[in-house]
């Protein structure tokens, strides 16, 4: 076929491709991009005393000079970091076991790992309260054998950590398990044939091939944890509180939508930094 015909056909497909991607792109712009710019404009273009509007960063200045707001941001960052630090080793261990194990036990483990995906957050919250809360199941079991009660994590910063880790195990395990699918059995067997032990196989064969999957998993979990509402609201302390409950209370209880939107914009700025890892990882995979 002449090169001119190939070029002509390729050009003919361009309008069709653009028409196919136009609806989802328009939907993303309408439901995500436009609200983002609208929220930023609303927090910067504030009413002035004369009844008009003026450019001002007063709401952002207040946030970064208010100790209560900064404490809420700090506890959100702390909770996110601690949850990510627990999730990665836990889920990576489960994913490695599921990748290389066979038999019924592996199927049961996989079922237990995916089970939290089908449990609503509100049900999980009250289940944890009944188990780990004051006079919960753990306290009753300890009392029955004459042991003292536990220091309950309920209404402490560790309450949301426990709930968020348990709630994010399924998606993290699935992402890591998908990455481990790219690790061939032949490469592992070849490494073992030349004397590599399990630690060497993990560090030099498995880990380099799942680095992108780890970045994607961390990005997804961090974005979900940073913006979480139900679990921090039910299990966490009243003060300091994570940004999700903080925004909701500012909007509903204080009736201050501008300040709540400012908190949302600041939260978005932190989340987009983690989202860049996901975008870069996807772009790198497509390029490869």
Folded structure, characterized:
- By secondary structure, the chain is mostly helical.
- It has two domains: 1-56, no CATH class; 60-287, MetI-like (MetI-like fold).
- It is 77% helix and 2% strand.
- The protein has helices spanning 3-44, 58-65, 67-100, 104-114, 121-132, 137-144, 158-180, 185-193, 198-209, 211-226, 230-235, 243-252, 257-287; strands spanning 45-47, 53-55.
- A two-stranded antiparallel ribbon has the order 1-2.
- Helix 8 runs antiparallel to helix 9 and helix 12 packs antiparallel against helix 13.
- The longest helix is centred in the first third of the chain and has 42 residues, at 3-44.
- It is flat and about 80 Å long.
| Average residue pLDDT | 83
Largest sheet: 2 strands, antiparallel
H-E string = HEEHHHHHHHHHHHH
Structural class: mainly alpha
CATH class of the largest domain: Mainly Alpha
- Which descriptor suits the 3D outline? flat
Count the E strands: 2
- Number of structural domains: 2
User: From the alpha-carbon coordinates, what is the Rg to the nearest angstrom?
Assistant: 25 Å
CATH architect. name of the largest domain: Orthogonal Bundle
What do we call the CATH homologous superfamily of the largest domain?
MetI-like
Number of helices: 13
| Strand neighbour order, sheet with most strands | 1-2
Classify the beta-strand content into a percent band. under 5%
Q: Gap between N and C termini, in Å?
A: 29 Å
| CATH topology group of the largest domain | MetI-like fold
